[in-house]
Amino acid sequence: MKYTFEPTGANAQTNHLGSYRRRLPVSLERMYENALDWAHLPHVHASTFDTITCTESGAWGWRATVTSGDEDTEIELLLDRQARRWITRTKSGQNVGAEIWTQVFQVESRVLDITVDFFVPDIPASDRLSLGKAYAAVYERLYDEDVALMSERQRQLDRRLEGRSTDQSLSIENPSRLPLPHAFSLGGRDYLLHQQDQAWLIYPARCPHQLGPLDALPLVDGQVTCPWHGYVFDVRSGRCVSGATCHLGPMPTVTEHSDGLVVSWALPVNPR
Ligand code: FES
Ligand SMILES: [Fe+2]
Question: What global pTM score does this model have?
Answer without folding.
Answer: 0.91
